[in-house]
Amino acid sequence: MIAVRAERFRLAEVFTIARGSRTEAAVLSVTVERDGVLGRGECVPYARYGETLESVAAQIEGLPAGTDRAELQAALPAGAARNAVDCALWDWEAKRAGRRVWELAGLAAPGPMVTAFTLSLDAPEKMRAAAARNAHRPLLKIKLGTPDDMARLEAVRAGAPDATIIVDANEGWTAEVYADLAPHLLRLGVAMVEQPLPAGQDGMLAEIARPLPVCADESCHDRDSLPDLAGKYDMVNIKLDKTGGLTEALALRDAARAADYRVMVGCMVGTSLAMAPALLVAQGAEVVDLDGPLLLAEDRDHALRYDADGVHPPETDLWG
């Protein structure tokens, strides 16, 4: 039996990106129960990809009874619905076998990974204050994506002079705005820029020098995305809600490495249940951005542990 339920978790603060603001994380949790064993997964439907809580729940509820992981890859497209079910099936398989998911997947036991902490889009003085509060963190990710971002960049660097900074424009810049900003990103020590231009309108990236690494997010979903990234991007952001689960995320990671892309592993704003499988993909990644639970005012029981070493692998009570 596959069951799906909508849940909402309050955010610690309003979270804003170029496409809008939110005060809660709206997620779908999936449980797979067979032979007295229960597996769990979570997804975050994303309006940017035409997903709603209702549409994704309908996809999940339409699956044939007894669908296994191999059948699931063909039954649903890459996206949030397949992700939640895929991760729940991995959890179910591990619990039934009495082993950990990484053992079943032939992976080494995971360790903690240092994660970025995201500063949402705001007025420059507020972003400077947020950067100062989090200046002790080794890696800060700034949400930008407007024509007026220069003051925000300067403010964050002033607030956190020693932190490594990466920037996520969420498709919000034009080619002209990015060309103007790029030298300043370098001057301010930004280590990487994520999706500066809209997916499908990013051809200019192949025509310019890229001394600042550029990461594909909205332009990269699964392995089928890779051919179109050639010459435009240096890195890919792997998110399980885009790949459609852990199965494809691991395959995308291997294919991206084989094609000489660096790897970032990111997340939507979800709970520890969504981050747990992503942490397996994140092992060895150049950039890890699994800070969803750090942005929440409330999380699930048996939540992931975050400390100076980073985000730690899950307990079996949570997942895997």
Describe the structure in your own words:
This protein is an alpha/beta fold and 320 residues long. It has 11 helices and 13 strands. The protein has helices spanning 53-61, 69-75, 80-97, 101-104, 124-133, 150-159, 175-187, 226-229, 240-243, 246-258, 272-282; strands at residues 2-17, 20-34, 37-43, 117-119, 139-143, 164-168, 190-194, 214-216, 235-238, 262-265, 287-288, 306-307, 310-311. The strands form 3 sheets. The chain has an 8-stranded parallel β-sheet. The protein has a 3-stranded antiparallel β-sheet with strand order 1-2-3. A two-stranded antiparallel ribbon has the order 12-13. The longest helix is centred in the N-terminal third of the chain and has 18 residues, at 80-97. The protein is globular, with a radius of gyration of 19 Å. The mean pLDDT is 95.
Features:
three-stranded antiparallel sheet; eight-stranded parallel sheet; single chain; 320 residues; 11 helices; 32% helix; alpha/beta
Strands across the major sheet, in which order?
Answer: 4-5-6-7-8-9-10-11
In round numbers, the mean pLDDT is 95
- What kind of oligomer do you see? single chain
Q: Radius of gyration in whole Å, from Cα?
A: 19 Å
Total number of beta strands = 13
Q: How big a fraction of the residues is strand?
A: 15-25%
Q: Percentage of helical residues?
A: 25-40%
Which structural class best describes the helix and strand composition?
Answer: alpha/beta
Order of helices and strands: EEEHHHHEHEHEHEEHEHHEHEEE
Report the biggest beta sheet as strand number plus sense, adding barrel if it closes.
8 strands, parallel
Count, helices: 11
Contiguous low-pLDDT stretches (5 residues minimum) are none
